[in-house]
Every structure is written in structure tokens, then in C-alpha cells.
Design a protein that fits this description.
There is one protein chain. By secondary structure, the chain is mainly alpha-helical. The protein is built from 11 helices and 4 strands, in the order H-E-E-H-H-H-E-E-H-H-H-H-H-H-H. The strands form 2 sheets. The protein has a two-stranded antiparallel ribbon with strand order 1-2. It has a two-stranded antiparallel ribbon with strand order 3-4. A hairpin with a 2-residue loop joins strand 3 and strand 4. One of its GO terms (molecular function) is zinc ion binding.
């Protein structure tokens, strides 16, 4: 709760290790996009982070895992800041905000990875692209398979930036846990659903919001596999994880 509130000094800093909390992204709303929710989400989308190569070991596979975990931790910090910009999110209690973040943070991050990964490589960042052999060597073969499957689904739909950012927000709002204030969560979900319907109604070729929503279960399965993979590597290979990242996975 304290981290969501942003009360601790370490999470108040405007920059840390190249992280900018409310930096503008390169994605701008298209000229024809009149939906205020989607335009706002695109404008507040954090700029992509670059991976910081870990140099604490000469073992390439271990270095890959450590580099990836550091990147995920910094992306998680940005996601917490971005979530507060989702219309209706700040109206939730701090407990419910944390509930949604703990439930959907990995899903929200993997939407971007799967959407960017158009080829055989997984694009975690522009300078961190992992192919199947690299993932297998790092103990992430199961994650590679799951993310490639999800990426193929998104490619088949030719997912747009507007749809990707909407799916990211909906992944955070889609929780199975019981909130303290169900009515506030329902308003958040209804607002996102309405924005998605408006977006789909304006699409050339007809709406396909149902296909996007039907991809959420696969996204959740992929996120679960990602968490299991990282925790297994953490425990079996004693790979250190940032405290916040570890707490969010447990």
C-alpha cells in the first residue's frame, strides 16, 4: 500500500537508473481517435525502457536472467505510476489498487512484450531480444513458448496501439479477488469496457472487441507461467530478485 501511495522516498524519485515515472511515450493518439480514455492512456503510456546489462557474472545465461529481472523491476515501477493514470483507478481504495496491481501486473507488462515481438525473438526491450535458444539456456523455455503463442494471437488480430493499451488497462482491472469496494471497481471496468466498445465501433471492417476480451485468459495463463519460471529460477539457481518484484510474485 505504501508503494502504491508513493510515500516512500525511493519511489518518489523522478528518475532512478534511467527510469522516468511520468515520461511521455512515443505513441500519440491518432488524429481520428476521439475517445478520451484511450487518448489519455496513450499519452500517459511510459516511454520504453532500455535493459541494463548485468556485469556481475561472466556466465551469459545467468547474466540474461539478471538483466531481465532488473528490467522487469523497473517496468513494474513505471506500471504502478501508469496505473494511477487509468480513469477510475485512483478512485479505488489503496487496498483495492494494490489488489489489482498484484493480480495483473505481469499480465499488463506481457501485453507489451507479446505485441512488440513480431518475429522469432521476444522483445523485452529494444536492446534485450531473446530467441528460443537464449531462453532455453536461461531456463525460460516454457515462457518463450507461451509468449510466442500469445504473440501469434496478437499478430493474427493485427492489434493496434489503441487496442494494446486498452488490453493492458483491462488486464489490470480484471481480477478474481474480492475488492473492498465492488462498486468502484465495477465503474472502472465499465468505463474501460465502454471505451473499448467505442473504439471497436469506429473500426473499419467491423468490431472485434470480443476477440480481444477472449485473449485475456491466455494472457493470464502466460503471466502465471512467467511468474512460475522466474520463481523457480530464483529458488533453484539462487538468482537474487528485487524485493518489490519478489513480493509481487509471491
Amino acid at each position: 500500500m505504501d508503494r502504491v501511495r508513493g510515500g516512500r522516498q525511493k519511489y518518489k524519485r523522478p528518475t532512478e537508473s534511467g527510469v522516468t515515472f511520468y515520461c511521455r511515450a512515443a505513441i500519440s493518439p491518432p488524429a481520428g481517435c476521439r475517445n478520451k480514455v484511450i487518448s489519455h492512456l496513450l499519452l500517459t503510456e511510459p516511454a520504453p525502457l532500455s535493459a541494463t546489462q548485468d556485469e556481475s557474472t561472466n556466465e551469459s545465461s545467468l547474466s540474461t536472467v539478471l538483466t531481465l529481472c532488473d528490467l522487469l523491476n523497473r517496468q513494474l515501477l513505471l506500471l504502478i505510476g501508469w496505473a494511477k493514470q487509468i480513469p477510475g483507478f485512483a478512485a479505488l481504495s489503496l487496498v483495492d489498487q494494490m489488489l489489482l496491481l498484484q493480480s495483473g501486473w505481469m499480465e499488463a507488462l506481457l501485453v507489451g512484450v507479446a505485441w512488440r515481438s513480431q518475429g522469432e525473438e521476444l522483445v523485452f526491450a529494444e536492446n534485450l531480444r531473446l530467441d528460443e535458444a537464449q531462453c532455453r539456456a536461461a531456463g525460460l523455455a516454457d515462457l518463450y513458448e507461451a509468449l510466442r503463442h500469445l504473440s501469434a494471437k496478437y499478430q493474427a488480430m493485427n492489434m493496434s496501439p489503441e487496442e494494446a493499451v486498452m488490453l493492458k488497462a483491462m488486464a489490470l482491472a480484471n481480477t478474481d479477488a474480492d475488492p473492498l469496494d465492488p462498486s468502484s471497481l465495477q465503474r472502472l471496468q465499465d468505463g474501460l469496457q465502454g471505451a473499448l466498445q467505442e473504439l471497436q465501433a469506429s473500426r473499419v471492417g467491423g468490431p472485434r472487441g470480443g476477440r480481444l476480451l477472449m485473449s485475456l485468459p491466455l494472457l493470464r495463463q502466460t503471466a502465471d507461467r512467467a511468474v512460475r519460471n522466474l520463481l523457480r529460477i530464483h529458488r533453484e539457481q539462487r538468482v537474487p530478485l528485487h524485493r518489490l518484484l519478489l513480493e509481487m510474485m509471491l
